[in-house]
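#struct-pred
JK: can someone run the complex with heme C? inputs below
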Amino acid sequence: MILLSGCGDPSSDGRPLTRHPGYEYMPNMYRSPSFETYSENPNFSNNSTARLPVKGTIARGTMPFEYKNTLEDYLRAGKELINPISKNDKNTEEGEALYVMFCAHCHGDNGDGKGSITHPVYGAIPAYNDKVQIRRTGSTMSELKDGNIYHAITYGLNAMGPHASQVTPEERWKIIMYINNLQKEEI
Ligand code: HEC
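RT: done, structure tokens with the ligand placed:
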């Protein structure tokens, strides 16, 4: 046996090559009759085995956000959206921790708009409890509705970038719960 197995042409790493591929028992295990996910497939009109979800499909555990980055939808979000997270100390504290991580460096620990970033572009950061400066809503920062804030976190506004990729929808609502407290703070 040792002599025979030494007879094939050696491959580059010195192992002998066998010329016979061997017998296949149960060829289905080698060549599966099912389609490969990303293979071409003439059975379907777009020639692709991987199928798209049915239109209108909502992934389990997600809530679609049906508002575009327009003033109209910003105002509509303010009228329609209600914070779905129950208001309690635990959620508010989690919101505060997230706020410190993602917002405080611009908006300030206490929401006064005086965070550690002093770049001129970020000079005009409004305080959450501001009762003077008129915003897109026609009202002030302290009167912004939860849906307005949610829209602003999701899409950003001018120098404030969108935060949709940093904070999940649930985290956004928790941050808003905490911001509600900052909006009420006395000036
Ligand atoms: C890079 C700095 C920066 C960061 C980080 C930032 N903001 Fe802002 N934010 C701004 C600036 C600047 C404005 C004012 C934009 C304007 O009026 O042109 C603003 C405005 C806002 C407004 C008012 C939007 C409106 O509709 O009038 C809200 C609400 C807000 N930010 C919430 C947040 C929250 C919540 C976070 C954290 C998730 C956050 N921001 C993170 C800079 C920042």
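RT: quick notes.
The CA atoms of residues 25 and 31 lie 11 Å apart.
The chain has a mean pLDDT of 89.
JK: thanks, will look after standup
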